[in-house]
Write a structure and sequence with these properties.
Elements (H helix, E strand, L loop, with lengths): L5 H4 L10 E5 L4 H12 L3 E6 L11 E5 L5 H15 L4 E4 L15 H29 L2 E6 L3 H4 L5 H21 L4 E8 L12 H9 L9 H11 L11 E4 L8
Parallel strand pairs: 1-2, 1-4, 2-3, 4-5, 5-6, 6-7
Helix pairs in contact: 2-8, 3-4, 4-6
């Protein structure tokens, strides 16, 4: 057992034993931490990323390339996973892109479209591909990465904020569609986390965002992974369509 942070110490060994978990954005700061936590709890993790190699799936999981904006790529990955394991017990969509950082009247049209495609359209495609599998098998857990920007709206980040707000609405709607099939679909809305994504923002922007966090510190990926591990487990049995706060106290109401 790790002697690191509390989020790392309290690993629930065996909670995900033998469960098939598909993860997007698996090479990112949050995705990679979640993959490690899920594997430590016994999951068979299929880690996907745009830059991942197309490898063979084994009894312990593997890596697959996935362009989340391509419906055919989603179909190929889902077929590969179900063909090898026969099911998908959980899906974590932890991919994303920051998008333009500028006032609304300066946002380029192609930058807006790209931000929507990567952050929102991709999640629609993922749910469209995976939900039928979960509905047919009669169980499933989905957690989708949103952002505090999707709840509060961040200054000079209109495209990203709108896309992440759309993710919340998408998950809430989809959750109602499949609630009777033991398929839980939730979102998580982090504030600042120690990931490469923060490097895409200016120092001034990072300082401003951190100033809004009452705990006065940046979040760490293992803290995201701890929440994801629970939300993707059978223990999450009566919570669906929910937005999990992961903001160090920044968010205080709807």
């Amino acid at each position: 057992m790790s002697t690191g942070t509390a989020a790392e110490r309290y690993v629930s060994e065996g909670r995900h034993a033998g469960r098939i978990v598909l993860v997007t954005g698996a090479r990112g700061g949050l995705g990679s931490a979640a993959c490690a936590r899920l594997a430590a709890e016994g999951a068979v993790v299929v880690a996907t990323d745009l830059k991942a190699p197309d490898g063979a799936l084994t009894d312990t999981g593997g890596e697959l390339a996935l362009d989340v904006t391509d419906p055919d790529a989603w179909r190929t990955v889902v077929e590969a996973v179900t063909g090898r394991y026969g099911r998908i017990d959980a899906l974590l969509m932890s991919h994303g892109s920051q998008g333009p950082e500028c006032p609304i009247d300066e946002v380029p049209v192609d930058g807006w479209a790209r931000t929507m495609r990567i952050n929102l359209d991709s999640c629609f495609l993922g749910l469209r591909a995976v939900v039928p599998v979960m509905r047919e098998q009669g169980h499933g857990r989905v957690l989708v990465l949103s952002s505090i920007a999707g709840r509060d709206g961040n200054e000079a980040m209109a495209a990203y904020s709108v896309a992440k707000a759309g993710v919340i609405a998408l998950a809430k709607s989809a959750a109602k569609d499949v609630a009777r099939h033991d398929v839980m679909i939730n979102t998580v809305a982090p504030a600042m986390f120690q990931t490469p994504l923060t490097g895409d923002l200016s120092p001034e922007r990072n300082a401003m965002l951190l100033s809004k966090v009452p705990m006065g510190r940046i979040g760490q990926p293992p803290e995201f992974a701890a929440l994801a591990a629970w939300a993707l487990s059978p223990e999450c049995s009566y919570t669906t369509g929910h937005v999990f706060d992961l903001t160090g106290g920044r968010y205080t109401g709807d």
